Each structure stands twice: as structure tokens, then as C-alpha cells.
Amino acid sequence: MTILTSSEDVDADPPNQSLLKSSQDNDFQSLYDFLENFQKGDDQVIISIILPMFNEEMTIKNVIESLPNQKFIEVIVVNDKSTDGSLKEIENIKKNLNLKVVNHKLNKGYGSAILTGIKNAKGDVIVTMDSDGQHDPKDLLTLVRPIFTKEADYTIGSRYLGTFFYQLPVSTRLGELFVEKLIQIFFGKKIMNNQNGFRAFNRQILKIFDNVRYDGYAFCTEQILRASIEGYKIKECPIKLYDRKHGSSHVVLSKLAINMFSLFFTYLVKKIKLTVIRKDRYGMLKIYEKELKKSPELKDLRINRELIYINSNFFVEKRFT
Ligand SMILES: Nc1nc2c(ncn2[C@@H]2O[C@H](COP(=O)(O)OP(=O)(O)O)[C@@H](O)[C@H]2O)c(=O)[nH]1
Ligand SMILES: [Mg+2]
């Protein structure tokens, strides 16, 4: 296991082969069978599981030990300056896993922890999962399968499509319903469990994590909006959600609500600007094409048309995404 004190990228120790076949393998047999088709080489990591961790001493060890244990699946714990014994618990893990621990020097928040995890991830498909034991690793296949089969670029676990084993606070349900409607009306996607942190995405869409504005919990919704603006395929998948057995949620609802409003406002403006620009650019190209047909001598300028296109694309990318 490797423990880092910053977000630098350092390789994890190679896993111990003799320990790779654990009793948990049975739980993950269908995942391994499925992944067999996508393995590239012996030491190639194909899935990175990121666990953001803040004061989860009661659960983190169990969560890590319950994960699939194979060298093509790496686990990255981002310790966000926990003040309890979380780190000690990880050190107590006897199994030699394909595990990397990255320590933030300061508490930077949920979103920042995910970004640090991504920086350190080597897998083709990246999964984020909570370290408080609410998520079930057996749902991993449900989340990663659509990514590998190219049915989706970004999957989000949903307790509403699956099951949850506890009484959901009314405020949480109402909040999520409100966000669901906003996303649906303004961004054309229906995502019910939009705050769920159990997600998976293709490395090819990492662009949505550039210049993130919200590093706390609003990060979850920001990524849905960015993926949607970029035209990536998002799919909600059924998962199980368990109650938090220890500690309590770190979510501060009032802070999240304020961030959500500012988030929607920002991205709505962005989307409108993008739509106008795309329309403009399309209009310009149409006029140009018409002119080209009328005057064959303009043919030599075809290259210019491509340049206009490339430049405008570049402009849009840089300015508005
Ligand atoms: N890195 C990091 N992780 C956090 C922070 N706050 C919460 N988490 C982790 O994010 C996950 C979800 O947090 P939780 O408070 O349970 O949110 P909830 O499940 O939406 O109520 C857990 O794994 C937490 O340990 C933080 O400030 N930094
Ligand atoms: Mg939780």
C-alpha cells in the first residue's frame, strides 16, 4: 500500500498474487467474467475505484476489504485531512491490496477529493464510491457495464431505480426532486438520485472535471450538468443504498442549497451562450456553403472554411466549457 501526503502521482505497490483469490471473489465472479473481455495486459489497471474519506474510522476498513481484490482494479482512498483514526484503520488492513492512499494537507471537500483521486487514477473506467459503507460493491458491475459496452459515458447509481433500506429524510427527497426537475427542464436529462456519489465514467470524458467550480457536494450536480452540456451519454442505474451505521452525513443542507442555486444559474447562462454560438456558427457555415456552390472559384477557400470551423470550435471550448 502506498501512502502519499500530497496529490502527487506515485505507483501503488504491486498486489500480492497469493492473496488475490479471496473468498470475496465469488461475489465478484460475474464482474471478473465481464472484465475479462477488456483486459489488456497482466498489469494493466482497467478500473480505478476512488473513495473520498473524511472521518470514517468506523467503516473505512470494512469498505476497503469488501472491494474486489484484483490487480486490474485499483483502489484510491483520498483522505481529506481526517481528524479521527481513519488513516490508522487503513494501516491496520493486513491484506496486500492494490491500494493507494493520498492525503490532503487540508480539508478540501468532497469534490476536491474526487479530483485528487482522478489525478491518481490509471484505469480506463473510474468509479467513485462513498467510504461510509452506504454503497454495495456488488453493484459495481451494474455501474461499469454500460461504460464498457459504450451504452453510456457516465453512470450514476440510483436508489430510486434500485432499493434503499432506510427511512429517507423528507428534505433529502424533496431537494433531489427539485434538482431532478431543474435538470430535466433546463438540461433535458432525468436523473432522480442526482446526489448519489456511487458513479462510474469513462476516462475519455475527463474533460468534464477541468475547471470545476464547486468542490463540495454541489460537485455531484455540476458534473451532471457538464456531461450533459458536452453531449455525453448519462445513464442512471439501479443500486442498493444502506443506512449510515456510524457517524452522520457531512452534508450541510443550507450550504448545499445556496451552491445549487448559483450552480444552476451559472450553467444555464453557459448553456444559453453555447446554444447561441453553435447556432451562429452553423448559420455562418450554411451561408459559406451556399456561396461556395455559386462561385466555384471560391473552392480554394475551402481550407478557410475548415479554419473558421476549427477556430470557432476552439473559441467555444476555451470560452464556455
Ligand atoms: N474527501 C472528503 N470526503 C468527504 C468530505 N465530506 C464527506 N466526505 C466523504 O464523502 C462521502 C459521502 O459523504 P456523506 O457525508 O455520507 O454524504 P451523504 O451520503 O450524501 O449524506 C463519504 O465517503 C465521506 O467520507 C470531505 O470534506 N472530504
Ligand atoms: Mg453517506
Describe it:
Strand 2 (47-53), helix 2 (60-65) and strand 3 form a beta-alpha-beta unit. The protein is of the alpha/beta class and 321 residues long. The longest helix has 42 residues, at 253-294. The protein starts with a strand and ends with a helix. The protein has 2 domains: 2-251, Spore Coat Polysaccharide Biosynthesis Protein SpsA, Chain A (Alpha-Beta Complex), CATH 3.90.550; 275-319, no CATH class. The protein has 9 helices and 8 strands. Helix content is 40%, strand content 15%. Bound molecules: guanosine-5'-diphosphate and magnesium ion. Residues 52-54, 56, 78, 80, 107, 109-110, 113, 130-132, 134, 195, 197, 244, 249-251 line the site of guanosine-5'-diphosphate.
Helices and strands, in N-to-C order? EHEHEHEHEHEHEHEHH
Assign a percent range to the helix content. Answer: 40-55%
Biggest β-sheet, characterized? 8 strands, mixed
Q: What count of helical segments does DSSP give? A: 9
CATH fold label of the largest domain: Spore Coat Polysaccharide Biosynthesis Protein SpsA, Chain A
Tally of domains: 2
Taking the alpha carbons of the first and last residues, their distance comes to: 37 Å
- Ligand catalogue: guanosine-5'-diphosphate, magnesium ion
Annotation, overall tally of beta strands: 8
**Radius of gyration over C-alpha positions, nearest whole angstrom:** 22 Å
Report the sheet-strand fraction. 15-25%
CATH superfamily of the largest domain: Spore Coat Polysaccharide Biosynthesis Protein SpsA, Chain A
CATH domain class name of the largest domain: Alpha Beta
- Assembly category: single chain
Class per helix and strand makeup: alpha/beta
- Mean pLDDT figure: 85
CATH level-two architecture of the largest domain? Alpha-Beta Complex
